[in-house]
Amino acid sequence: MTAIVTTITQIVIHTPAWVWVVLALLVWRGLKSAQPRNVGLGKLVLLPAALVLASALGIASSGISSAIIAGMAVGALGGVAAGLALERRNPATALGNGQLRLAGEWAPLFVILAIFLTHYVGAVAAVMAPAFATSAPFLIAMAAISAFSSIMLVTRTVLRVRILMAIAPLAA
User: Fold this and answer.
1) Burial label, 166 (beta-carbon count in 10 A; 0-12, 13-18, 19+)
2) Distance from C-alpha of 124 to C-alpha of 52, rounded to nearest angstrom
3) What is the DSSP string of 55-122?
4) Which tens digit of pLDDT belongs to each residue from 137-152?
5) Please, are residues 163 and 92 in contact by the beta-carbon 8 Å criterion?
6) Distances from the Cα of 138 to the Cαs of 43, 50, 126, 132, 145, in angstroms?
7) Cα separation, 126 vs 131, whole angstroms
8) 132 and 101 in contact (C-beta within 8 Å)?
9) What Cα–Cα distance (Å) separates residue 63 from each residue in 3, 111, 143?
10) Which residues of 85-120 are buried (b: 16+ CB within 10 A; e: fewer)?
């Protein structure tokens, strides 16, 4: 038991300070999502776009393999289903002034944490157990979690943008 505690302590100690700052900002953003709020197009797409970019970069840095493609496919299918289900349960409401009213919910915090932890675990594994970090089961799991989280965000964002555009289309 002490070996596990020592290992975890060493991982935390050797994590760069900027990682904890990023985590704090992501948690803050996720907690804000638990409150009902009004958002415009910019706020609606900014965080999902940043998180999808981070996920895509993480997957690309692993190299594309059949294991990653398999994990991405499974995760993407689950992400679409979850995004549709969550949006059906908590639909956005168009306010007619270029804004949407979003219900407060905890799902965004969990998705943000899943994406962060996927990257964190991947980075730690690459340093501490490189052979494991490049194994097919690990790559499948990491790609599936990353794709699930990202595609769920994209699905919900696309549905919300469609609502926003139906009410107030952007000027061409």
Assistant:
1) exposed
2) 21
3) HHHHHHHT---HHHHHHHHHHHHHHHHHHHHHHHHS--EE-SSS-EEE---SHHHHHHHHHHHHHHHH
4) 999 999 999 899 999 9
5) yes
6) 33, 24, 11, 7, 11
7) 8
8) no
9) 32, 23, 11
10) ebbeeebbebeeeebbebeeeebbbebbbbbbebbb
Are 81 and 157 spatial neighbours (Cβ–Cβ below 8 Å)? no
**Mapping DSSP to helix (H, G, I), strand (E, B) and coil, where does residue 8 land?**
helix
Joined together, the tokens standing for residue 97 give 């002034």
What are the beta bridge partners of residue 37? 102
pLDDT tens track for 75-108: 999 999 999 999 999 899 998 888 999 999 999 9
CA distance 142 to 58: 9
Give the separation between CA 16 and CA 47, rounded to whole angstroms. Answer: 22
Structure tokens at 7: 């290992």
End-to-end CA distance of the chain: 62
- Measured CA to CA, the distance from residue 5 to residue 64 in angstroms comes to 34
Contact of 31 with 109, CB cutoff 8 Å: yes
